[in-house]
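Title: [Solved] Transcriptional regulator 3D structure

Original question kept below for reference.
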Amino acid sequence: MTSDPQRRLIDPSRVDAAVRGLGDRETVVQWADRFSVIADPTRLTLLVCIHYAREICVSDLAAAAGMTDTAVSQALRLLRAHGLVTAHRSGRVVYYRLADATMHELIHHVRPHPDGG
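Solution (posted by the thread starter after getting help):
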C-alpha cells in the first residue's frame, strides 16, 4: 500500500485488502466499459435470450426479443466487437452464442434459469 502521511487510517489492513482486491486499475476501466455495453436494455435483453437459448439465429432472436432483425443485427455487431458473443455459420444461417464465460455466470446469477437448472 502507498502510504500518505496526510491521511489517517482507521484500519490499515482493510485498506491493504481493498487495494489488493482492486488490482490493476486498467482492469477496472475494462469492466466499466463492458458494463456500459450491457447497461443498454436492448443489448442486455439479447444477451439474456442468447444465454437461455444457448445459441440462436438473428431472426429467432428478434422474435424472442420482440425486435426487428435489423435492430438485433446492429446490437449483435457491438456485442461481438466487445467479445461478448460469437457467431458460427451453419449453411446460410448464422448462430450466435455467448462468448464470455463471465457474462454467462453474471446473467445466470442475475436471472437464474426458470426451471432451476
